[in-house]
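TOKENISE THE FOLD
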Amino acid sequence: MDKDIEISVVVPIYNEEDNIQPLLEKVNEALVRRSFELILVDDGSRDKTPERVIQFGGPEVKLLVLNRNYGQTTAMTAGIDAAVGKYIVTMDGDLQNDPSDIVAMVEKLEKEGWDVVAGRRANRKDGMFLRKIPSKIANAMIRKLTGVHIHDYGCTLKLFKREVAKNLGMYGQLHRFIPVLANIHGAKITEMDVKHHPRIHGTSKYGLNRTLKVVSDLALILFLQKYLQRPIHLFGPVGFLCLALGLGTSGYLLVVKLLGNDIGGRPLINLSMILLLGGIQLLSMGLVAEMLTRTYFESQNKTTYVVKETHLGKQQA
């Protein structure tokens, strides 16, 4: 690790050829008094984005070119893996985030003792109906369900201590849930207002089609947050409830049959079978998930805990 580098700025880029030169200029201007590296991760661009980075990039620039388009989360992870700075910053490459906020975020983290400082777009320059309203609804839902009270999950501009960023464990499209992933690892998180600019060059890569992906990822993040180490506690109660309801309805139907009534055409018999089979499947899934959890931790010598600090008592003379 190069101990001289204080800040690593990680920027996933995809078809941003017109934004590269102004991005490089703004980052250099913002961090001119700091020791930094700028890691640009080209996520399979189809235009001249990599060529522009090579053309305008200085010695502080590191370009990673992925062999195809993997998505923002994977590109961000590649950049974080390559970062060597004491602090790691993530931001978008479309110049809607402002690099001039980075120094203030570092100062806030250092003075107040945080592990993560998340940006909050105070005056967001996006469309009301396609971006702002869906974002507000999603942010409120995530805060309510996860208990992590960040107001703007969609702002990519975030600052991390190096050890926190390196252990986020992002897969799929989980970059939207970075504060929750950091919280799972015990990080102390705060937020601060940052500037936000309208996009000048290129087109946005976001749209309403990501809504279902966000909901799916939210279900995954809730599982990781609450049940990763005890999946049977999720599947077990629901499975036993289904079994109990299935046995109850089956018992009722048995009594009705013994009293001489025909039950063959009753929808209730189908419901009882569905409940019984569903309960058995849920319990089986819970047991399999428990075995997978043990394999996940034990095969890689992982622990189910993280020791933050160790203090030894004073030695007697």
Notes: The longest strand covers residues 7-13.
